Recover the amino acids of this structure.
């Protein structure tokens, strides 16, 4: 079976720096994969390459067998990759509900014609999907608040809800636990595993090792732009290369 | 709150607005009994349409537009030229003028769409100025600074609409229809997509929103309605000249949008009413010399004390969505559809 | 050929005027990330103050220029106090250069510019005011085959001196250092003890002073001034700032010169009424090929 998402010898250089170097990974449908690595390992760049924010200098990205590298972010998003951002990018001046609708709007790909009466089904679907997404993260009560006015932790969930409203085949979470405390991180962990149990394919980029090790079936480790390990959490924890990479850089 | 309640409200407010526009205002105007007042009313409506069209592109989509008067001017000149050279009727010139302005807006937007924030603004400014210079100096076609006189009045299928009252109704119907379309665009989910664009266009792109297309669409649609407004101006005023469409007019329209509240459609309309109406009121009170200064002071005061505008976007959006039912209807629909299981409590 | 040279000189002096005005935009954009819409009115005020001084005292040109410089600087400080400072309620980076503040100050400076322009119009009338003939800078000078007027030289020379002065102020005085610090990183500057409020006021003073001098120079060159005179140079200077990359002073100056020269040169080929079109066409073409201005570089600040 061909992989759901795969990158083939993917590379990206900035100036002389190889931010991502010859990385090949394969994600199967229904997997929850953790992507870890020390600071500057190229995790976010890899992410941006997959979601179309950055164009690769070499290699390919394939989603369900089709090449998606070189497409615009909205094309890739419409093909089924939903993402969140490392440093929270919600739309602050519109309501929580309206934030979430944006994901659903992207999925429905609405245009000028959407105001025509016979297009009402689309907007009803958007309403419904947005409520479902808000419900999934437990933010229904805050639906009518301005996004700028809810707490930091809730904004994290809002961002996930917005990605869920895109009804993505693959969900990429970029450091969702950053800035959360212990209890919040635990909540998040069980939330992510629930999303996974519902059948979603998820890639999780995280700094928080415990979070990744506790919920992911498979962990990919990046260091200096290269993939240095790919296996079960146990394997990764015992891998000497990973240990060195972490100790070496953290020093 | 149930569905019938909502629709009741919807008709209530639609009724109030339509009664006001088609019954109360004409009644007041006929009591005042001066045809000049009708002209002011027409000007206010035309500028309400201009402000509404700029609201779509600047308030909702967040593209600072400093050359809106150009599209207004294209519409005006297009209508005037079609009417004087080809003797075309009002019914034809209005949509043609709109389409011409929309087309040019589209052509302008294609190369400038990838510009961001102030660069985009200054590009629109440059294009606005270019069109102004052209109308001023392309004398064989535009008659230069002398402007164009439109003869023959406004006729729709041989019915004459040139008299003040029919002209008022004609303008009111067209403006109301156009603003209705803008209302649908800016308060539906399409409007949400535009707002996402304004807030963070990269992020909107990652959500699957085709940002370049949306920018292009909103700019073109906005140009179209500005063109319609220009044609209405040409026909009701009976005379146009480049001075009607210069940079100050762009700024005046922008002031209306900001005064009313960026992103708020009722605010933009209110802004148009105030900034066109106030000078006329002042003129009545023999304060004509000070009127522009007073406009400046009013504008300054509003920005200082009411930075979100007279009717802020958030409250305008809440009000309109609840009363007119676009996008999501009532606030508490959520509780109704989801019953008990909604409380998940991850936080 | 001589005609070309002559137009080149005229273009250079025109460009210098734009440059003086553009520097005000650029400096202010640098420290606050906002566009000062009342900058054109500072130019007008400079011209009218110059007129008043000429009419009442008839002092030598240098004195007039210095007084106008001072008045322009004070106007700038006042403008900052009323149209910009009230919107800087909080002092974190996010608010200091936020979109909300940008929009608010755009409109507040616009509102004050309306008040200023209309005020001048109320006082002097909207017609042209003539400056006394004997002060006008239009005595012809023949340099080889080229005939220009002394105004061209005086404008060029004064502007050049002021640009050099500005460069000195920015590089070698504490005010200049703090302006550059705030413009680079307002929060950082504040942490190391720079008084940002005072620095911003100084920036307005410097930028507006130069704009006002440009106003009186042009007034003397053409011999006539009017309340709306600040509009066209204001727009051209704004364009120069954007083409130059928003906060680069050398960029703004070079682009202002390009605009001035191309306008003057264009009158060789087309009627002078189309001059303005050239500048704007230039702008659009530049933006299409350099979406962040010619000297925009990599720094994203908008």
């Amino acid at each position: 079976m061909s992989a759901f998402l795969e990158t083939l010898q993917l590379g990206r250089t900035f100036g002389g720096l190889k931010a991502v170097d010859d990385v090949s990974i394969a994600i199967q449908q229904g997997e929850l994969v953790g992507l870890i690595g020390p600071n500057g390992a190229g995790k976010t760049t890899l992410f941006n390459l997959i979601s179309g924010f950055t164009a690769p200098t070499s290699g390919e990205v394939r989603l369900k067998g089709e090449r998606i590298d070189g497409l615009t972010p909205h094309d890739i998003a419409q093909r089924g990759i939903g993402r969140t951002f490392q440093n929270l990018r919600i739309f602050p001046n519109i309501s929580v509900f309206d934030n979430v609708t944006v994901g659903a709007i992207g999925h429905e790909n609405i245009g000028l014609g959407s105001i025509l009466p016979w297009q009402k089904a689309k907007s009803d679907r958007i309403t419904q999907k947005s409520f479902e997404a808000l419900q999934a993260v437990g933010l229904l009560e805050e639906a009518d608040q301005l996004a700028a006015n809810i707490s930091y932790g809730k904004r994290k969930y809002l961002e996930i809800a917005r990605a869920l409203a895109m009804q993505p085949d693959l969900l990429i979470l970029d450091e969702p636990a950053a800035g959360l405390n212990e209890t919040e991180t635990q909540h998040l962990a069980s939330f992510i595993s629930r999303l996974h149990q519902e059948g979603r394919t998820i890639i999780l980029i995280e700094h928080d090792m415990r979070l990744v090790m506790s919920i992911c079936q498979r962990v990919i480790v990046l260091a200096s732009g290269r993939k240095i390990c790919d296996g079960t959490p146990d394997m990764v924890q015992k891998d000497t290369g990973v240990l060195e990479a972490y100790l070496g850089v953290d020093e | 709150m149930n569905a019938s309640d909502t629709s009741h409200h919807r008709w209530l407010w639609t009724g109030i607005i339509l009664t006001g526009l088609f019954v109360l205002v004409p009644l007041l105007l006929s009591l005042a009994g001066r045809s000049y007042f009708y002209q002011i009313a027409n000007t206010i409506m035309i500028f309400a349409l201009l402000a509404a069209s700029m609201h779509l592109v600047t308030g909702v989509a967040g593209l600072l537009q400093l050359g809106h008067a150009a599209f207004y001017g294209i519409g005006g000149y297009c209508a005037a030229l079609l009417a004087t050279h080809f003797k075309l009727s009002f019914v034809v010139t209005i949509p043609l003028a709109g389409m011409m302005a929309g087309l040019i807006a589209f052509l302008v937007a294609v190369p400038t769409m990838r510009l961001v924030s102030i660069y985009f603004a200054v590009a629109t400014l440059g294009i606005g100025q270019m069109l102004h210079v052209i109308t001023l100096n392309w004398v064989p076609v535009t008659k230069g600074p002398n402007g164009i006189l439109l003869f023959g009045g406004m006729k729709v299928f041989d019915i004459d609409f040139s008299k003040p009252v029919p002209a008022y109704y004609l303008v009111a119907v067209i403006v109301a229809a156009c603003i209705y379309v803008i209302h649908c665009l800016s308060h539906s989910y399409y409007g949400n997509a535009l707002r996402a664009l304004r807030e963070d266009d990269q992020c909107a792109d990652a959500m699957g929103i085709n940002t370049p297309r949306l920018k292009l669409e909103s700019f073109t649609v906005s140009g179209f309605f500005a063109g319609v407004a220009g044609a209405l101006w040409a026909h009701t005023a009976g005379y146009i000249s480049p001075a009607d469409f210069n940079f100050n007019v762009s700024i005046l329209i922008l002031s209306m949008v900001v005064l009313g509240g960026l992103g708020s459609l009722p605010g933009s309309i209110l802004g148009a009413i105030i900034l066109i109406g106030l000078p006329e009121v002042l003129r009545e009170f023999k304060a004509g010399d000070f009127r522009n200064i007073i406009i400046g002071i009013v504008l300054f005061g509003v920005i200082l004390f009411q930075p979100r505008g007279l009717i802020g976007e958030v409250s305008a959006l809440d009000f309109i969505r609840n009363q007119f039912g676009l996008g999501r209807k009532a606030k508490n629909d959520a509780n109704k559809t989801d019953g008990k299981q909604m409380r998940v409590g991850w936080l | 050929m001589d005609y070309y040279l002559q137009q080149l000189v005229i273009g250079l002096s025109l460009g210098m005027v734009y440059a003086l005005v553009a520097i005000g935009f650029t400096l202010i954009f640098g420290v606050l990330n906002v566009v000062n819409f009342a900058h054109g009115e500072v130019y007008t005020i400079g011209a009218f103050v110059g007129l008043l001084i000429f009419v009442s005292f008839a002092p030598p040109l240098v004195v007039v220029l210095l007084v106008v410089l001072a008045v322009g600087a004070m106007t700038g400080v006042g403008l900052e106090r009323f149209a910009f400072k009230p919107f800087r309620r909080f002092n974190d980076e996010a608010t200091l250069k936020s979109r909300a503040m940008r929009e608010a100050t755009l409109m507040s400076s616009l509102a004050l510019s309306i008040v200023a322009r209309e005020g001048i119009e109320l006082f002097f009338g909207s017609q042209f005011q003539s400056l006394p003939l004997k002060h006008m800078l239009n005595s012809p000078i023949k340099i080889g085959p080229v005939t220009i007027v002394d105004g061209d030289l005086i404008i060029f020379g004064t502007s050049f001196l002021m640009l050099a002065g500005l460069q000195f102020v920015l590089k070698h005085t504490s005010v200049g250092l703090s302006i550059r610090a705030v413009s680079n990183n307002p929060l950082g500057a504040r942490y190391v003890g720079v008084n940002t409020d005072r620095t911003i006021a100084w920036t307005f003073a410097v930028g507006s002073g130069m704009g006002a001098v440009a106003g009186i120079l042009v007034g003397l060159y053409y011999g006539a001034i009017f309340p709306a005179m600040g509009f066209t140079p204001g727009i051209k200077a704004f364009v120069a700032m954007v083409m130059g990359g928003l906060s680069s002073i050398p960029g703004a100056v070079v682009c202002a010169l390009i605009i001035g020269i191309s306008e003057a040169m264009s009158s060789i080929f087309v009627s002078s009424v189309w001059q303005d079109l050239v500048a704007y066409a230039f702008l659009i073409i530049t933006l299409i090929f350099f979406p962040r201005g010619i000297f925009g570089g990599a720094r994203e600040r908008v």
User: Anything to note?
Assistant: The CA atoms of residues 239 and 283 of chain C lie 7 Å apart. The first strand of chain C starts at residue 129 and ends at 130.
